[in-house]
Amino acid sequence: MKPQLIEDEIGRHLRAAEASGELRQAASFGKPLQDAAGWQETPEALRMPFKILKEAGFVPPEVEMLRERSELAQQLADCADEVERRSLQTQLANLEQKLALRLATLQGRGQL
């Protein structure tokens, strides 16, 4: 007897769900999948490794920094107060510099 591959089992479950109409009932049926938050902001070479780590429950510091960068950029875009804008710009610039150094270090180690 041939060992069953996980892909075969997944295919069997999908065919059963399609036959029963379960797939069509899903809210996302027929719609493109949405990118995870921060996906486009993440350097392409890091997207898949970070996704794998995220699904394993581990969030690398660089991902947290990218998330924080995105939040600061949004706060800056929404900010009307000039003093607060300058503070946010400084925070964002400092974070971007720190992130660039971390990414350069990873690249130098051949991890990118």
From TrEMBL:
Domain DnaJ homologue subfamily C member 28 conserved: 12-77
Protein name from the UniProt record: DUF1992 domain-containing protein
Organism name: Parachitinimonas caeni
InterPro entries hit by this protein: DnaJ_homolog_subfam-C_membr-28
